[in-house]
Predict the 3D structure of the following.
Amino acid sequence: MRKLGGILGLMVLFGVCTFGAPFRVAVILPSTINDFAWSQSMYEALVAIQEEMGEDNFQFVYSENMYVIADAAAAIRDYATQGYNLIIAHGSQYGSSLVDIAPDFPKTSFVWGSTAQTFTELGIHNIFAYAPHAEEGGYVNGVIAALLTKTGVIGGIGPIKTGDAKRYAAGFEKGIKDTRPEVQVNYTFIGSYSDVALASEAARTFVNAGADVLTGTAQMTVGAISVAKEKGIFWLGYDVDQSPLAPTTVVASIVVDWTVALKPIIGMIQEGKRGGEILPLTFANGGLKLAFNEAALEGKLSPIEIIELKATVWETVRKIVSGEITIEVE
Amino acid sequence: MIGATLVGIATSAIRLATPYLYAAIGEAIGQLSGVLNLGVDGIMLMGAFTGFYVTLLTGHPALGLLAAMATGASMGLLMAFISVTLQAEQGISGIGLYLFGLGLSTLLFGMTVGTVKTVSGFPQAPIPGLSRIPILGEILFSHNPLVYGAFALVPLAWFVLNKTPLGLKLRAAGQNPLAADSLGVDVIRVRYVAVVLGGVLSGIAGASLSIALLNVFQQNMTNGMGFIAVALVYFGGWRPLGVLAGAMLFSTVNAIQVWLQVQGVKIPSDFALMMPYVITILVLASMAKRRIHAPAALNKPFERGGE
Amino acid sequence: MSDRVRSRQYAGLLIHLTPLFAVLLAFFVGALMLVGLGVNPGTAFKSLLQGAFGNLNAIADTIVKMTPLLFVGLGICISFRGGVLNIGGEGQLVVGALAATAIALAGKGFPGWLLATVALVTGALAGAVWGGIAGFLKAYLNVNEILSTIMLNYIAVYGMNYLLRGPMMDPLQVKLGFFIPQTARLPRAVDLPRLVPTRLHLGALIAILVAIFVYVFLWRTTIGFRIRTVGMSRRAALASGINVRRYTVLGLLLAGLFAGLGGAVEVLGVHHRMFTDGTAFGFTGGAGFNGIVAALFGRLHPLGTIPSSFLFGALLTGANKMQRVVQVPSALIVALNGLIVLFVVGSEVIRRRRLRRLEKLTIVEEEI
């Protein structure tokens, strides 16, 4: 009898354990976790969630540098087989793989982005999507750039003209035009996420053309930031806070906080919902944050100018949040 | 305005050409001795990483450069051992070396530095006097030391290859190793020297990016430059001056396309980016009449008393 | 059979296993690196094997990975035997894939088998054109093929980026406003049939049939003989009245043809749409380069290329699994891949020397 009680006790304990099993996440990243851009921002979000929920309740694994789509698909399938609760395919290029894989694992949830597609129209109900509104971030940086430039020439450097890069660029140009229409802004795309040398040369050419504020997205822009630092001009960043890279150069960074999408997704999964939702990341919901680095302006602008600049910028953010400013991307 | 633009483009082209010059001249030396090394990009990455890391640790870009040269030499030694001593198929060993360098540099970067950082590399060093010359001064004499080095390398390489006993032996080893051997040239040793020298120059090519022109390191930051460098050797017909012409052509077109985009000229960026590659092919094709022959023993292992 | 002859046969077998020892040696160095990273090499390599061969799905994945390597490798067999180096596999794969995608999207409504066949043929032809350009440049305009194929790879990639974010972009992407650079999904009717209930598709079978065809072509036809003659000695070929230029073009054209077919097969069999991440690698997985390695390991023999691309497919598939299981940086796997290539190609000389010694011994004994 006592033995039976012991077994029962064990079973209860086991049951509790299963119930309280950690939430397991696997993430597929197209570049490295230290790229100072897209992949790093996601990695940092997962670390933040783990710190908040505790290692007993939240565990994650990652596959980095998954730029080969077929390999990423194999990784996604493998993680799904291993019973992870949530698999994050952190790249818009992974979407078509998810359409193939997700139906085979109805109990697993998947999430991908940047996109506004969850494929419910195909009868798939276990895919979430996240969509950072890069154009909002671009717009705010555009306003900052317009207020900072003295020469009236501003440059932007992007990888290829698609997805978030395209949306950011469109917002950036609009932010400038809405603030100071006379300012000249050009955006160049260097056709690569890794060609640091060409990004750097594009930055130098902008400087030659008179630009005194530059911006850009994706990991190869570190080359351009380095040039901005050398030339003593301003840089406006995206994805992560890039000011540690060049504290006197990076005036502001639009930080994408993926936890704003991931936490609700985790919540929904724990409540039994598997997918079908699109989670935007905007200034309104805190998914986009402005990391303003005042130190970069000290000595270059008067304290009053800095205060005025900040006021205008935060006012812009407020107007985006309230919907007074809307940004269309064609 | 037009003047300033042209100066800007020319200066830009010279900067862009720098890594190609080191790497392509290094590759040309190796090929002249009979060894095709497709692993240039991997050596460049290793050179870029060690140069960066040592500069980060010590604060002295000169030490970084030395480290990059030593790394390049070791990678060259590895290539020489496999392709000369072990007589392995050269094209494939080069691809192996490329993958090895690509992987190892990324791995070491992740283990040591871990995140993107900038260093203070070689500063701009305008040459006193010369840099004051209008137009030319700005284009040619207002760069950092590694840029001057790349251009000084062209006549130096020409001299060594054409006017010194080493150059003669080197070409003999690549042209007719059996005859060279019978004349007392140590073909194996000469090929080792050439490939290691090529490695050193590729190492500098990598360092010219990470501690002179860009002052950052990132995985795969060469983005295939090493392969373009190999292509430029063919463009230049194994002559330093020809390599210079090829590197300048490619880089000038590249600088022009960057400039066009920066000016907001409405062409799709993809077509602009395509230009350097298309024009390099077209220019070479238009010179179809030139008579240049590859080193006869290129890509052929040498074995004393062999077939 | 005398004991001596039998032991000689074992010795011969051992010699042919030299590359395997080289792979083991490379893994040993890899193990040291793993230890340096604080990872148990046993666990790591076990996961590698499991990832490549552990179950039916793993084997299917390995064969799927093998397929483009084999297609590129077969083209390499022809062009290298013809004396030209083709480093343009990446670009040829991309061009073939784009052409097949365009046809499959345009031909919606046609019977699936017909549309699929036309798409595959178009892909192959597009690849042939891309390879043929390099061949023409070499034969008639004196442009070295290493230069032209490297440059043509970049041109193909930029062309692809333009098409996929422009004219060929999925209209839905424009509507959604996210501009993911990819085409619409191809009509399901053109999907290559699955062979078993895994990811394994008909493409692998096509590749193996093509391998047999290439073997017959190279060794049993006049054209194949002439290509090989040109490769062995241009002078001899000229002397025997072969149009060397024509066969140079043909060699690169055929290399492009098979790589292009490989690209088309990848689209119809695996991806069902075309996409880009800015480089060719996302789509090709580097098959344009790895195919060269596979062909050379297969001693430039079409049938030898089958097992060697299978082994490479296994290595690449297993390595990804290893990254997941032991969480090593992906860069270690790239470095290990490089080491394996270096060690195997370096071990060739040992194999060759031993083989020669064995042959000499045999001859001496036979004379006695």
User: Anything to note?
Assistant: The longest helix of chain B spans residues 2-32. Residues 2-115+142-286 of chain B form a domain with the ABC transporter involved in vitamin B12 uptake, BtuC fold (CATH 1.10.3470).
